[in-house]
Each structure stands twice: as structure tokens, then as C-alpha cells.
Amino acid sequence: IQLYIPLNFLGVIYREIKQATTDMDRMFVLLGTQQEVADTPSAPVLAVNGAEVRFRHVGFGYEKNRVILDDVDFTIAAGTTTAVVGHSGSGKSTL
């Protein structure tokens, strides 16, 4: 029993590191991907004044009878930080 807990913990850490290296490999592949759309050299700089991100009537569900987001409305003003919190499976990553 005295060895079980440390060995189990070591196994958990090993799996976490293995998953992290797999995720990093995928991220490096994405970072190395060539952009499909590129600005022309003469493209003007985009001037953004008073920008915001606005969600209006957003809905999502994995199945028709299991709605995750239903008619969600909110606005995020430029230069602000917004946190989306909720239970697991509540739609945070979907947003």
C-alpha cells in the first residue's frame, strides 16, 4: 500500500506529460500551416475604432433535444476582458 499511491501518482503524471506532448505536436503542425488568405503588399492598414464583439441570438446543441446555448446575447467592448464561466458542458468552449 505504501508504494501504490506514489506509483499511481507517477502513472497519472506520465499520462499528463504524454498528452501534453501530443497536444504540443498538433499545435506546432497548426503553427506551421501556410495561410490560405494573405494580404496583398499594398493592402491598407485596417483602422479599428470602437470595435466590439457582439453575440446575438446564439444557439447551439449537440442534439436537437439537448440544447446547450439558447438565444444567448452579449457584447464585449474593445479593450475589456470577459470571463465565461460555467459547469462542464455548458457551452463555454463553443462560444
Please give a structural write-up:
By secondary structure, the chain is α+β, with helices and mostly antiparallel strands. The chain has 2 domains: 1-35; 47-81, no CATH class. It has 1 helix and 2 strands, in the order αββ. It has one helix at 4-31, and strands at 52-63, 66-77. It has a two-stranded antiparallel sheet. A hairpin with a 2-residue loop joins strand 1 (52-63) and strand 2 (66-77). The chain is extended. It starts with a helix and ends in an 18-residue tail after the last strand. The relative contact order is 0.10. The model has no long low-confidence stretch (mean pLDDT 90).
Largest sheet: 2 strands, antiparallel
**Distance N to C terminus:** 45 Å
Mean of all residue-level pLDDT scores: 90
Overall number of structural domains: 2
Number of helices: 1
Number of strands: 2
SSE arrangement, N to C = HEE
Helix/strand structural class: alpha+beta
How much β-strand is present in the residues?
25-35%
Stretches where pLDDT is under 50 for at least 5 consecutive residues are none
> What is the rounded Rg?
22 Å
Amount of helix = 25-40%
Within the largest sheet, what's the order of strands? 1-2
Oligomer: single chain
- Per the principal axes of the C-alpha atoms, what is the gross shape? extended
